[in-house]
Amino acid sequence: MKRELLHRLKTWKLSSHRKPMLVMGARQVGKTTLLRNFGKECYRNMVELNFDDHPKLKRLFKRDLDPKRIVRDICLELNTEIIPGETLLFFDEIQDCPDALNSLKYFRENANEYHVCGAGSLLGVKLSHTKGFPVGQVHFEKLFPLSFFEFLDALNETRLKDYLLSLTFNDIINESIHEKCLEYLKYYFLIGGMPEAINIYQETEQFDEVRKVHKDILRAYDLDFLKHAPTHLVIKITECFHSIGSQLSKENKKFIYSIIREGARARTYEEALQWLVEANLLNKTYQISTPKLPLIAYENSQYFKAYFCDTGLLSTLVELPINAVIDGNDLFQEFHGALTENFVAQEFVQHYERLHYWTSENRAEVDFVLQQEEFVYPLEVKSGMSNHKKSLMLYRDKYQPELSLRASPQNLDKQKDFINLPLYLIGDIGRLLSGYKK
Q1: What is the mean pLDDT of residues 229-256?
Q2: What local confidence, expressed as pLDDT, does residue 155 receive?
Q3: Who's near 27: CB < 8 A, 6+ residues apart?
Q4: What is the C-alpha radius of gyration for the chain, rounded to an integer number of angstroms?
Q5: How many whole angstroms separate alpha carbon 220 and alpha carbon 52?
Q6: Topology of domain 4-142, per CATH?
Q7: Within 13 Å of residue 379, how many CA atoms lie on the same side as its CB?
Q8: Which pLDDT score is estimated for 342?
């Protein structure tokens, strides 16, 4: 599968200021496969150490953290060669070997001629609890589930993907192409961006088989909580994780701790929730009441929404009937909005460091507020064909933004300072906004 992150990895390889690299991301998003493909495509050879599969390899780092001694001993242990600039040295599940993590500092300082990278599913959790980790000595990348455009690529719709990525706000999309994209979007809502789920759909074209893969992944997450989370947090993490469907099914999707358990308070569950965020299983979007630059300075961190890392996994987690998505169902309409918002958040988190939404004294709410260069843009998400946009109108009247946006199943439509963007284009909004001319 083609992954957009591969382009940044190639840039990293050629950089004169290259640092050892850590690739983070949720379990089973494809980190190992991506780095193996990178090594195969861009290097003479790759040397891989997996500290989960082969824990004995940790001994190579016990004596000291001298990178040249480590490289020598790896070559002897694995009967291989590591050539500066020509070999990719890959430490997989690096969070299981703290000494290997700490060695990255010394590779940077004393042996930067070696191209070293690491990956791990729970790196975010590990690093947040590792004292003295030399953050400034390491380059970080994050891999997410496949985006909708990567999904099209994986389903051999590269021509369609390239066409969508060439559009501007002024273009007209043929209605038949628009309908085709919406049909693929329904598939994406059910399949999501986990590589194994997409692979099984390609092989079988059966959504029931996709659901089996999703359930295996969700069970693996539950086992991760038992294996890797602090004992006092395991139950709370599990409760938080399985409450996300209920959190998003509300009309007001603000995260409410009492939904996890009646009477629960933030102080009881906020550490567990943060663990899930650091494990890249949840994406938070923060409330602002004043859309000024920089948005982060106007966050109210007490109020936020929590979206699931993958929309396909979410549809399985809440046991959403497959036909309700494919054929439509009146009983599904409310959660359809939640699924649509989750999709938009999943696309945005790949391009924006932090996500925000706007509220005004409980009278109005705009689903997303985007900071793009020196501009702030409000964006309302609609899962249906309704043109009703009361909250967005209140925002526009109050702040008079240069441009307002709605993401919906409707076709691309530009009207002066308002644009309706088809949901399937939302992952390209950064480029579209950069090229926007009023």
Answers
A1: 96
A2: 98
A3: 121, 122, 217, 220, 221, 224
A4: 23
A5: 15
A6: Rossmann fold (3.40.50)
A7: 25
A8: 98
39 φ, ψ to 5°?
A: -65, -40
**CA-to-CA distance for 331 and 415, rounded, in angstroms?**
33
Q: Domain-by-domain residue ranges, the chain?
A: 4-142, 148-435
CA distances from 93 to 27, 101, 214 (A): 10, 10, 22
In our burial notation (b when 16+ CB lie closer than 10 A, e otherwise), range 28-51 reads bbbbbebbbbbbeebbeebbbbbb
Residue 188 token pair: 């994406």
- The 3-state secondary structure of the chain, one letter per residue: CCCCHHHHHHHHHHCCCCCCEEEECCCCCCHHHHHHHHHHHHCCEEEEEECCCCHHHHHHHCCCCCHHHHHHHHHHHHCCCCCCCCEEEEEECHHHCHHHHHHHHHHHHHCCCCEEEEEECCHHHHHHCCCCCCHHHCEEEECCCCCHHHHHHHCCCHHHHHHHCCCCCCCCCCHHHHHHHHHHHHHHHHHCCCHHHHHHHHHHCCHHHHHHHHHHHHHHHHHHHHHHCCHHHHHHHHHHHHCHHHHHHCCCCCCCHHHCCCCCCHHHHHHHHHHHHHCCCEEEEEEECCCCCCHHHHEEEEEEEEEECCHHHHHHHCCCCHHHHHCCCHHHHHHHHHHHHHHHHHHHCCCCCCEEEEEECCCEEECEEEEECCEEEEEEECCCCCCCCHHHHHHHHHHCCCCEEEEECCCCEEECCEEEEEHHHHHHHHHHHHCCCC
Helices 207-228 and 234-242: crossing angle in degrees, nearest 10, is 150
Neighbours of 201 (CB within 10 A): 22
Report which of 99, 127, 97, 134 is spatially closest to residue 20, judged by C-alpha positions: 134
Nearest by Cα to 1 from 198, 212, 203, 211: 198
What is the tens place of the pLDDT at every residue in 329-371? 766 777 899 999 999 999 999 999 999 999 998 789 999 999 9
Q: How many CA atoms lie within 13 A of 222 on its CB side?
A: 10
Cα–Cα distance between 336 and 353 in angstroms, integer?
26
Q: How far is CA 15 from CA 3, 9, 112, 327, in A?
A: 20, 10, 12, 49
Strand partners, 116: 89
Tokens of 200: 């099984």
Structure tokens at 405: 């946006």
Residue 330 CB burial class (10 angstroms; 0-12, 13-18, ≥19) = exposed
Whether the Cβ atoms of residue 85 and residue 113 lie closer than 8 Å to each other: yes
pLDDT value, residue 397: 95
